[in-house]
Amino acid sequence: MTDITQIRAAAERGRGHLRRTPLLSSPFLDEIAGRRVLVKAECLQHTGSFKFRGAWSALSALSPEVRARGVIAYSSGNHAQGVALAAKLHGTSAVIVMPKDAPALKIANTRAYGAEVVLYDRAGEDRDAIGQEIATRRGLTLIRPYDEPMVIAGQGTSGLEIAEQAAEAGVTRADVLIPCGGGGLSAGVALALEAVAPGLRVRPCEPQNYDDTARSLRAGERLSNATMATSLCDAIVTPMPGQITFPVQQRLSGPGLVVTEEDVLRAMALAFQRLKIIIEPGGAVGLAAALFHGAEIAGEAVICIASGGNVDPEIFLRALQLPES
Amino acid sequence: MTDITQIRAAAERGRGHLRRTPLLSSPFLDEIAGRRVLVKAECLQHTGSFKFRGAWSALSALSPEVRARGVIAYSSGNHAQGVALAAKLHGTSAVIVMPKDAPALKIANTRAYGAEVVLYDRAGEDRDAIGQEIATRRGLTLIRPYDEPMVIAGQGTSGLEIAEQAAEAGVTRADVLIPCGGGGLSAGVALALEAVAPGLRVRPCEPQNYDDTARSLRAGERLSNATMATSLCDAIVTPMPGQITFPVQQRLSGPGLVVTEEDVLRAMALAFQRLKIIIEPGGAVGLAAALFHGAEIAGEAVICIASGGNVDPEIFLRALQLPES
């Protein structure tokens, strides 16, 4: 299991390579939320999402010999870009298995970072099986998107930064709202905060109809989503909570929060107007919960992670063209 | 005159109040520019532009008695918001003289920060005269947007950060492309860099038809713009270079760079796609020059300041809807 020592080691390996993303705020958002809102802008991380942290951690932890043979990953897009760039910067090759319906921008970027892209059908095929088969046949190391201790350690580095930045802002007790797919970011940040900022508690956030983590936390066991159809929040749609990540979430997380697609689009528009950052739908569920689900949150301040910014312009236009409410 | 001691003092007074904005980059932008491009994201500063630095510096330098009587400023928008928020945070009042045709968002924000807004006609009235008259009548301190040593010192704090962040990125020799209106940011950053990073040289950037600084630098004297009609780049349209700022630019700046409105919109779209930040047109002229005027720049790296992000959605949509080129 990942622990704080591994998270600190991942931060050390990432020094000079990971970007320390800012913790942003706006009095206008505070007013909407009814409390201070601090936004960790992971959309400003290299490749436009926190996933670069986990990818860098995993690649940098491999022995030079194993790394030189190349890596493989499957991803709806952000893990893909993270692994592709981390592989390129380590001078090795990457194969990325991506769903055919992933945002065009993410597929194009993954190729542009030098990776070989293999497309699959999200509805009918099992990406884990495809990934394992190619890995075995070609001698590549499979880097799973969340059920992978070194990836979780890498995501946890964001938690170390949050603890420091929140303390600088005078916040030591607050919920930390985290967009949650497989739970790698939530688990990594929760493990980091447990060790360095125990007054900060992770709460996973999900879009309606894809709230497997919130339901699983209530039920005390891993439950699946009823649908895997395409969601506006594609980046955080996974079949069910991770095998490694879920026990961490059970032990350390507060209740899940669930938001609507309209909440998400409004949060994206407010991030445009007030923070000057681009958040993709899946990356905006935490901010959406902070702004529009305040009754389910306690305390004078709330922290949320804006976990990614890789959104096609057409979707972003939908957010900007919402009527003022 | 402003000197490095005053800039360092402004940074000290701003500790815990000014946001240290990140220096961003993307391999995709490097490829377009043909060299490394480092982007100082001042659009992420409080109030969405670097102007908060100068406003905080000026307000915090006043004696408590003078400050308590209130301040007044004139501005097309970003200085307005900076002074309004800095006044509010210092517990004093602000009157802001703004052009009637300033972006709706900037006028609304200035009022929302608690300031009293007085509108004037950009074509027919002299904002300096209006500001001075109200200041005298009501006993307020006028905080000029650029011809004001404490404001220039505040803007210079961005230069101190650039010097440190560029050195961390391994860049010690480069041009620093800065959106230029009255020249407060260019002058402040140039004075900071002269002292702490002499290998970095400021080059002011302007939109076509509003290139008073570029022409003035060539002519060796302050020249006016032929027109003061509304520009896409409203934030950096001023009648002519500043009285205090221009001699600094003459001594320290390289030649000015001039970009088209289409360059600006394309730079905004690329910042959306590759950096995940919102840049307003006037704030994007430096990035536009870095990306599309590379032949006028030397060196293996270039730094540019994205000076503000306060753009109405309608204008931003124009950038996103540009045909791919």
Automatic annotation (TrEMBL), chains A, B:
Tryptophan synthase beta chain-like PALP domain ranges (all copies): 17-308
InterPro entries cross-referenced by the UniProt entry: Ser/Thr_deHydtase_PyrdxlP-BS, TrpB-like_PALP, TrpB-like_PALP_sf
Tell me the domain of life. Answer: Bacteria
PROSITE patterns assigned: DEHYDRATASE_SER_THR
- Cofactor(s) annotated in UniProt: pyridoxal 5'-phosphate; Mg(2+); Mn(2+); Ca(2+)
Its BP terms in the Gene Ontology are: D-serine biosynthetic process
User: Would you identify the family this protein belongs to, as annotated?
Assistant: Belongs to the serine/threonine dehydratase family.
- Its name, as the record gives it, is Threonine/serine dehydratase
Organism equals Falsigemmobacter faecalis
